[in-house]
Amino acid sequence: MRHFALALLAPLALSCLVLEGAVAASASAASDPTHPLVTQQAAQQVASANVGTMKPFTAPPSMAAVGGPGGPQSEIFGFALASSLSDPTMGASTWNFSLLTTVAFFGLHVKDDGNIAADSGLTVWNSSATSDLISKAHANATKVVLTIILQDFSAGTPHMCAGLAHASTTIAATVAQVKARGVDGVNVDYEGLNGYCGTSDAWAARHSFIYFVRALRSALPAGSYLTVDTYASSAADPAGFFDVRNLSASADAFFVMAYDLEYSNYARAPLGCSRFCLGPTAPLSGYYYNDTNTASQYVSVVGASKVILGVPYYGRKSCVASATPNQYPTAAVAADSYLDASGESTAAAVKAGSFAVHHDSHDPAGNERWDTWFNTSMNCTRELYWDDAASLSKKYALIRKDGLRGVGIWTLNYGGGSVALWSALNTYFSCPVQVTLPASVATTQFTLGLAAVNCSVASYEVQQFDTTQNIGWYPLKSAVAQGFPGHAYQFRVRAHTAAGLVSAWSFASTTVAAGATFSQPFKGLYTLDDYGGIHADTSPPLSGTAYYAGWKIIRAGKARPGAIPQSGGILDGFGGLHPYGTPVTYSGTPYWRGWDVARDFAFLPDGTGGYVLDAFGGLHPFGVNGHAAPPAAQGAAYWPQGGHLLRRHGWLRTGWIRRAASVWRRQSGTSRSNGRPLLAGREAGTRCGAGARESRRLRAGRVWRSPCILGSQGDRRAGLLGGQGPRALAVPTFGIDSHSAGWLLARRLWRSPSFRRRAHADELRLLAGQRRRP
Q: What pTM value is reported for the model?
């Protein structure tokens, strides 16, 4: 064992029998069954560590307020052991402070008389190691809090009772240390058992601790962060040392020590061991004491916002009789830090081919890991239960699902700079995106550099804002962006991680040079959908002002001639013109409320106005951006009888006549539409010349017609004309030998080849500044 023994266990020389005896005593007690041994061991190591001569504390520079936005989305609270704070392999220099919200210096011991003990913990606290810790933390908006330690599990807990009796002395000393070092609050690690404390009150220790925390809160500077370390079972323990419900009035949060649970679970199902046997340190489920139940119990008592679920960066191992699960130890039980546990497979003493990785069958959801191997130097089979990054991630998922305040790490020293550990925290709680862009780009198409270091990213969400036009934010499909020459743009990007986290936005900006080279053979290409949505196709995004979700009312869209950045109009079925892109105003436009009769429009070559085409061939002028509307059109084709029919029968209103196709093609003497039904199976009769009669059947997508269009008499049985019909109708030509039969004939109006209309009405592509003719 390389790291953990140096930091924690080597000076303690604890035997398996000592550990089992201590656990057996606590397990038999009615309350506080889950208090962890590991914190007691760490506290002893901190107090007695040989830290040597250290440089004195120097006040760090004044920093801005810490703990603000921009960091992890949940609390990430980590304990920093004073005994290895400066260790280059696992100390503060190896930690990613940008992923930490709070670091607790562990810590200063409280004596029976209430004063701070002059031990190794105080030596480190008064050294440059602490000033370096505070400087690094505050530079990353991370809080630093001081942990005060008092632990007593002896009969009657006399040391705890004495310390609580001198609470005022402890509070004064603690507040003085907080102010002297400029730290951000206090973490209280008082671990004991409820009892009389020499009084007639059976709950005297429990009550005294409530008063202590309440008085400490009142004495601390305003805004100080106060947390209390509690046992996994405390929220459901009505007679234990911690009265969680009453403490919550004074504490900002609880660090729930939900580890070392193998010592509380071994005698219960599913194991039922007669004495201590190895098992998961922090099971997610499947055991009597587990993280899922612990989180639920705390949430029900104090609410999710005050619960920090502690997780272990360590495991437990021992020699065992065989490489099978939940073995009884045959030698001392040792603790392995994450750094040690993750390196056991490559240790020199491992017999070749003996190392095997397993996962706990009693808690498949938790994915807790246990390893076995033969140790040649100890001449025994070793068994280790621990939480790797995959198992810890299951606990992080629980924290997110239950909406807890965050995760607590025991301890940062045990994990050091492990990439796997920091990556798991990043994926579940932060994942900031780094966006790289030059200050200026020389082409209209450019690519954003995106990176999320040590984070498992499922996808990036990218949005673009046109600073020059002050419009956006437009969603982009990729990191490839388009811009107009001379325009400045902002971008914001966030990651969607494999854990389901959506990170905070990261920002970057650039300017497209005024003389930038166009990356496409056009200066703007856009698709108009039936609802009014404008979709950029390898072009800078533009905004529309008309969108009718689920209502296919849009009839046409056109780009204003010569407009860069592109702007133009969108025509709805009632004649309304709506601008898109650069703001445009329209005046004098026709509008037929509730009457779906508008079909198309065109701009004048200079873009100062244009005409709207209705379904009967009427052309209606409009003006643009304050310009007067052009003169009324002369000599345009018009079929007024269609209006007569519409007024008498309201076919358009009732849906009997549906919008015809945009393009008609002549094939073998018949005309076919593009698949849209006209009258879907209705019959009509016409008379030609001297009375010859020919019947026509109009089906979906197909029309049979006679050589003449309509006679003077309509077939009343069919109900089409219902009276005097038109005597003559001119057949308009659509440029490719196409023509219509009927009277709602007008469909499209062309101005110039500056746009392309597809044969189907579902899409309209608009091109501005096109370099080739369509």
A: 0.77
Q: Are 252 and 216 in contact (CB under 8 A)?
A: no
Contact 335, 4 (CB under 8 A): yes
Scan for tokens 């008085």, then name that residue. 215
d(CA 583, CA 601): 18
Q: Over the stretch 64-104, which tens digit does the pLDDT of each residue have?
A: 545 555 689 999 999 999 999 999 999 999 999 999 999 99
At 473, phi and psi to the nearest 5?
A: -90, 130
Which residues of the chain carry a pLDDT beneath 70?
1-30, 61-70, 636-637, 640-774
Separation of alpha carbons 385 and 370, rounded Å: 4
* Nearest in space to 39 (alpha carbons), one of 455, 410, 500, 464: 410
In tens, the pLDDT along 357-407 reads 999 999 999 999 999 999 999 999 999 999 999 999 999 999 999 999 999
The Cα–Cα gap between 394 and 405 comes to: 16
Verify cis geometry, omega within 30 degrees of 0, for the bond prior to 473: yes
| Cα(741)–Cα(418) distance, integer angstroms | 78
* HSE value, Cβ hemisphere, 13 Å, CA-based, for 549: 0
Q: Own/partner pairs for 696-704, CB < 8 Å, 24+ apart?
A: 696/741, 700/675, 700/676, 701/672, 701/673, 701/674, 701/675, 701/676, 701/677, 702/670, 702/672, 702/673, 703/670, 703/671, 703/672, 703/673, 703/678, 703/741, 704/670
| 3-class SS of residue 246 | helix
Q: How much is the pLDDT for 69?
A: 56
The rounded distance, in Å, linking the Cα atoms of 519 and 538 is 9
Q: Find out whether 536 and 555 touch, Cβ atoms under 8 Å.
A: no
Ramachandran region, residue 303 (left: φ > 0; alpha: ψ -120 to 50; beta: rest): left
- Nearest-angstrom CA–CA distance, 600 and 578: 13
